[in-house]
Amino acid sequence: MSVDADGGPDDRLTPVLRPVRAGNGFEEALEQILQVVRLGLVPGGGRLPAERELAERLGISRVTLREVLKVLQDQGLVESRRGRYGGTFVLPRTQNAVGGEELRRRISEVDIEDVLRFREVLEVGAAGLCAAHGLTDEQAQRLREALAATQEAPLADYRRRDTLLHLTLAELCGSPTLTAQYAAVRASVNDLLDCIPLLVRNLEHSQRQHAALVEAVLDGDADGAREMMREHCAGTAALLRGFLA
Known about the structure:
Structural class: mainly alpha
Order of helices and strands: HHHEEHHHHHHH
Number of helices: 10
């Protein structure tokens, strides 16, 4: 298995990368790799899995995969490098550099209220399931490490680490369907978050909520986990409505 730029195995791609359905292989493969990029599952400067591995995981030919990667390269999202240490690398995303025209385009294409409601339903449900069913020691350690990564993240990498924490919680709930749906809606949320500034006070508040949420999950407090996640989602929703509505 390949290794990502953070030094860990690329198991984090599993919730997003899955075999595509016959008939729409190109389109579905493009959607999934776009989610990998938009969710920050491979950080800026990091390398995507090798073509052979990607093609196998998606169930498509390498010819089709190369067409997908060419689209992403044309859009300025990835670049191809040759040589011994070559491959396809994700280009860093410029934080908060979205112009007015691009901002209006993104907002016009997204039903913000629908995205926020669906996100809350999925996240509250996932938190409750994790707490109610309990986590193995290995799963609990994964969750603790994801939380620690957000606490240690530099400002420029915070949103990516935040995404990984939430995606970890969704994955640990035991429902692959919920995880896949959450990955899709979180990609939309991240597009919206890219349109607003990072506010240090908000991040500090979010971190306290993250810590309380993880504590409730690890304590098996399903009601507490659901309530904390609901409160956390409401805070993000308020910021997005304030800046974008």
